[in-house]
Specification:
Keywords: Glycoprotein, Secreted, Signal. This is VWFA domain-containing protein. The structure is a single chain. By secondary structure, this protein is an alpha+beta fold. The chain is about 25% helix and about 30% strand. Helix 2 packs antiparallel against helix 10. The longest helix is centred in the middle third of the chain and has 25 residues.
């Protein structure tokens, strides 16, 4: 039985009990019913476990499934990636949010919900989106891929609750929904009646008998318009919002909840939706590969390592230092749990910047770094913010980015764009600044120019400090000779489980006492202080003053000072610490550690959709009023949040919130106002899981990213995320202000340098929206899957207030290839004996694509611990050879073409006699397999003969018109039976389960 078969079988056997809402922002839970977000999460967790299991087995490791019901934390732990639980949950929530958003953005679009018998149109949306997901993954554009994924999953899941697929007797998903131009079944003609009126509130028998007998697909009509109509004799969707349900025939057929008109079938529909979601995710997995799939899901061991490097002529020493530290990081962390998940390099110069180079191979990254050469840069300022913009859009969310430069920014106009991206991605930015600008080798010729240079350096330095503070990073100023030491200090703490306990800055500086709570789960506790002429003292929870000059017997492990950076590494001592800062100069303080306990947060607002609930605020929350915050606590099943505050980043003011526990580790916090200045989110709580008797179990966590409120609202149209090369795309947007009116500046930028046109300003009156549009054009030769981040910004008169909207678009060329590659078995040789460890078997396969196809892109190993070799023949066909121990008798190959069409080819050697069998295409409609006719394959020391099996008809399977590729099967024979066990090589389908069961 293949893994997919096992997965679908388990999914269809599982009841609905025990599954909770993963995020209260999706307030559609209806006691006992499964909503979209739960369906999505269950499928993600199941498929992710299958991927991790396959990877573990391929590496010769054992794998253990966590107890059910699965949770994101348990799945991350089973995948040996506990430190990425936060990013995993963040990715799941992004997919769920995108799924949820369909009900708001496309509430009246029948195709997005398979309503009004728009099933073929729904299939088109699913397959188009799936193509975009695969193209985005191929370009490692994972954030956009997951956003698109959420949208199409909504439509896919609605098919099972909005159509009569369940009612006509189907117990397996309609696999053709995720295949372009495939036959999804016979859909009722517009003139054909499909329903009768319900018998009062009883709608169990409202679908007409001929529709059920002939297995005709239909779905209910839906409208919010009280004056709406529908074609004669058609079913309605039903439910409290549908205004067609009162039109003959009355009632509805939806299965959205157990209280729906067809709620008696809700569990079956929901479980089919889970299986179908799993099937689509498996398709994405096969196209991307197992490791890339886990990257897309935010599940990896270490954080991204991202360097933005100034490559102008004066940066030779700095680049040498970057080379040295890169080798050090790679040599010390590869193979450990903190090995970087991805390596990213963005060079910048003047006027050039980029490209973004990324790889998962540390040796390739070394070659990127070693290829950097300092040159050019005639004037001092460089394109540093352009490089940083690329890093923020290209690196995974919550990354740590290092910018190396010795010059001010030439592109200061990008400051607000960079701030917007920092707020969106919550990435930390560290600036490594050498020679403090004014000391660059390109000195001016006279005193006036030197004075101007000093002024520029101060402004440039402050810009970098502002951006570092906003992100929770450091602006480190050192000499070139000190740079290597400074980098080594900051890169020591790059764990995925890094948490912030305290972060503050003061400009102008002042003496102040800061306190922070350390709990027993915190390890590698470190304090960072940046600023000149900053003295401090530290008092431990036991009341002992820590002496940096003499650490004997103290809690200080080490103290280092380089340039304007001081660091103190501490032993973990639970309780309240006090840090006393003595300085009149500007400074920043940051306290971090490693801990599994952390939190995610999002500002939310009541949804204006007819279904209620809450929506996530994707930009800055509205100033001057109350606000709500959604907090998800991670890392402990027993911890709880007791306090949440909005704390001023540069002051002592704070706003306390009211905490409402929602269950499942989620909390909604209500605030009566938002600070008028930059602020961070501070959460405190109680964790009684395994704490020592001496510990109170109190914990404290703080957001690294500083946020701000705005009196402006900017909303862009994000209904279409696809950008066709060479074709202008217009993105409409609206701006509204709660403050004074006037002329508001409009700016639009994108990280790919695509051509833009937009209005330079809009005239606004208070409380009234003004509309505009941005036209963006990707060059005609832009590869599919390239992502572009479009930032639209509105700035109030005088520049005191601004807000933005950020859209992620993917470039997608028109796809005409929908045929997967084909595997042809060339030879299968085995000398397997009773002692499997002393013998091997060999496999040779030719993989080809259709003559008009895009060509084979990759062949990878899904299952098997042998050695895979791939070569390209003169005719451009792909030749695959595989050699394995007879103790590893099974192998699965995944063949993918250039646009993501894929084929899974399975082979096995399990008996003394091996034969090869080729079957005709399998068509599953009431499923009857064609006779199996065999052909000969020459094997070593094996007697072969022809075998013909009788036709087999199965029952209780009604997947209509699902056609797979020809099945090439190697059969192992024994004296009493014939087993289908080798090379079930067909298009992705749950039929693998059926075919296996035929012989058992």
């Amino acid at each position: 039985m293949t893994k997919l078969a096992v997965l679908c079988f388990l999914l269809l056997q599982t009841g609905v009990e025990g599954f909770k809402i993963s995020n209260i922002v999706f307030n559609h839970f209806n006691g006992g019913s499964l909503i979209h977000e739960v369906i999505t999460e269950r499928a993600i967790l199941n498929v992710t476990l299958q991927v991790c299991r396959a990877l573990a087995l391929s590496e010769g490791k054992t794998f253990s499934f966590p107890p059910q019901p699965f949770s994101a934390g348990a799945v991350a732990a089973a995948c040996d990636a506990s430190k990425s639980t936060k990013s995993f949950i963040d990715t799941i929530e992004r997919i769920q949010k995108s799924n949820h958003q369909v009900d708001k953005d496309y509430v009246l679009s029948p195709s997005h919900h398979c309503d009004d018998e728009s099933i073929a149109a729904g299939q088109f949306l699913i397959t188009l989106g799936l193509t975009a997901v695969k193209a985005s993954n191929k370009q490692q554009n994972f954030v956009l891929a997951t956003s698109i994924l959420g949208e199409i999953l909504h439509t896919l899941q609605d098919f099972y609750s909005h159509t009569n697929w369940v009612e006509i007797g189907n117990t397996f998903p309609n696999s053709n929904l995720i295949k372009t131009n495939a036959d999804v079944g016979k859909i009722a003609d517009i003139t054909r009646p499909t329903c009768r009126s319900c018998d009062g509130k009883d709608c169990r028998n409202n679908i007409l008998e001929d529709i059920l007998k002939e297995q005709i697909l239909t779905s209910g009509y839906f409208s919010l318009n009280p004056f709406s109509t529908k074609p004669a004799g058609k079913c309605s969707h039903g439910g409290s919002f549908d205004r067609t349900k009162g039109i003959e025939p009355t009632g509805g057929i939806n299965k959205d909840s157990i209280d729906s008109e067809h709620g008696h079938l809700h569990n079956q529909a929901a479980n089919l939706a889970i299986a179908a979601t799993s099937e689509l995710l498996e398709d994405v997995r096969s196209a991307a590969g197992d490791k890339a799939f886990l990257q897309m899901m935010g599940l990896f061991k270490g954080r991204a390592l991202c360097f933005c490097v100034d490559t102008t002529g004066s940066m030779g020493d700095d680049i040498d230092a970057v080379r040295t530290v890169t080798s050090s990081i790679i040599d010390s962390k590869v193979g450990t749990e903190d090995e970087p998940s991805i390596y990213i390099l963005i060079p910048f110069n003047d006027p050039e910047f980029g490209p973004l180079l990324q790889t998962t191979d540390p040796e390739v990254f070394k070659s990127y770094i070693n290829s950097l050469t300092p040159n050019g840069g005639g004037d001092a300022p460089e394109m540093s913010l352009s490089g940083l913009q690329l890093a923020l859009t290209g690196a995974p969310p919550n990354s740590e980015i290092f910018v190396f430069t010795d010059a001010a920014a030439k592109d200061e106009h990008l400051k607000n764009t960079v701030l917007a991206l920092i707020e969106q991605t919550k990435s930390v930015v560290n600036f490594m600044i050498t020679d403090v600008f004014g000391l660059r080798r390109r000195r001016q010729a006279d005193n006036n120019q030197q004075q101007q240079s000093v002024r520029m350096s101060r402004a440039g330095g402050q810009l970098y400090r502002d951006l570092a503070q906003a992100s929770g990073g450091q602006a480190v100023e050192v000499t070139k000779g000190q740079l290597l030491e400074a980098i080594n200090i900051l890169t020591e703490s790059t764990s995925s489980s890094l948490v912030s306990l305290l972060q503050a800055s003061r400009n102008p500086g002042k003496s102040e006492n800061f306190t922070f709570v350390v709990d027993d789960t915190v390890k590698n506790l470190t304090i960072y202080i940046t600023g000149t002429s900053v003295d401090f003292s530290l008092i431990s929870p036991s009341g002992v003053i820590q002496n940096i000059a003499n650490t004997t017997g103290s809690s200080i492990i080490s103290y280092q000072s380089v340039g304007n950076l001081q660091t103190v590494q501490l032993q973990t001592e639970g309780g309240l610490w006090e840090l006393q800062i003595l300085s009149t100069s500007p400074y920043s303080v940051k306290v971090v550690g490693e801990s599994p306990i952390d939190f995610l947060f999002k500002f939310i607002k009541e949804s204006d959709s007819p279904f209620g609930g809450f929506d996530v605020i994707d930009n800055r929350p509205t100033a001057g009023g109350n606000a709500s915050l959604l907090v998800t606590l991670i890392g402990s099943d027993v911890a709880t949040v007791s306090e949440v505050m909005l704390v001023e980043s540069s002051g002592s003011g704070q706003v306390n919130g009211t905490v409402e526990a929602q269950g499942g580790g989620t909390f909604i916090i209500h605030f009566d106002r938002i600070p008028s200045v930059e602020f961070v989110v501070l959460a405190k709580g109680q964790n009684n899981n395994g704490v020592s008797r001496a510990s109170s179990g109190i914990f404290q966590r703080q957001s690294a990213t500083s946020l701000r409120a705005s009196g402006l609202t900017v909303t862009a149209d994000d209904l279409n995320t696809v950008l066709e090369p060479g074709t202008p795309r217009s993105v409409s947007f609206s701006v509204m202000t709660t403050g004074e009116g006037g002329s508001f500046t409009i700016r639009a930028t994108n990280d790919q340098g695509f051509t833009l046109s937009f209005p330079s300003s809009l005239q606004l009156d208070p409380g009234v929206s003004a509309n505009g549009s941005v036209s963006i054009t990707a060059p005609a030769d832009t590869p599919s899957g390239i992502g572009v981040t479009l930032t639209i910004e509105a700035v109030a008169p005088g520049g005191a207030d601004s807000n933005y909207d950020v859209l992620r678009l993917t470039v997608l060329s028109k796809v005409t290839d929908f045929t997967p590659p084909v595997c042809q078995l060339l030879s299968l040789q085995s000398n397997c004996s009773d002692n499997c460890s002393r013998s091997t078997w060999e496999l040779s396969v030719q993989v080809t694509d259709a003559a008009n196809g895009t060509g084979v892109d990759s062949v990878s190993l899904r299952e098997g611990s042998g050695t895979l070799n791939i070569s390209t023949a003169a005719d451009k066909t792909t030749l695959v050879s595989y050699v394995a121990s007879c103790c590893s008798p099974d192998v699965q190959l995944v063949a993918v073409d250039q646009v993501g069409n894929m084929e899974i080819c399975s082979y096995s050697v399990r008996a003394n006699v091996t034969q090869a069998v080729t079957t005709s295409p399998v068509i599953t409609s009431n499923v009857t397999t064609s006779p199996v006719t065999t052909s000969n394959v020459t094997t070593s020391n094996v007697t072969t003969s022809n075998v013909t099996t009788s036709p087999v008809t199965t029952s209780n399977v009604t997947t209509s018109n699902v056609t797979t590729s020809p099945v090439t099967t190697a059969v192992t024979a024994s004296s009493t039976r014939v087993d289908f066990s080798v090379s079930l090589c067909f298009g992705f389908s749950v039929l693998s389960f059926l075919l296996h069961s035929l012989s058992l």
